Amino acid sequence: MLTEQAEVVEVTDEGVRVETVRRSACDSCRSQSGCGQKLLAELGQAQRFQILVANPKQFTLKPGDRIELGIEESSFLQASLITYLLPLFGLVLFALLGQGMGLAEPLQIAMGFAGLLIGFIGVRYWDRGERQGCQLQPKIVGKQKAYDFIEVEEA
């Protein structure tokens, strides 16, 4: 399960609104000093996002509580494959169809872009169906325990 830390902002009847900060994998990479990707990742660093999540375990939450969100790896992998491969498949398929029909090269390119657009639309409709099934939505999987403070007597 992929997990992320978040803070509760609001508890409603529909779910729990939480806020999380986007972090980059570059923070833990050894070659961050010589990598151009780190520069791009820093542009989107420290952005805060609020999302509405489900609370299937019925944790008692209030604003300010720290929680752990989770999503299944298989759902994440499936969504990634469909998001990237469906438009690419549409582009190649339609370009090959244009070539098979004997169209001029500019029309083959236009058909390829049409296939790409159809792939993006397909991803959009697939995403709407998955959201209704809530398979791709993160869920609250844990609540940070409050720390017990122990008073230490001074000698």
From TrEMBL:
Keywords: Membrane, Transmembrane, Transmembrane helix. The chain crosses the membrane at residues 76-97, 109-126. This is Fis family transcriptional regulator. Pfam families: RseC_MucC. It comes from Motiliproteus coralliicola. It comes from the Bacteria.
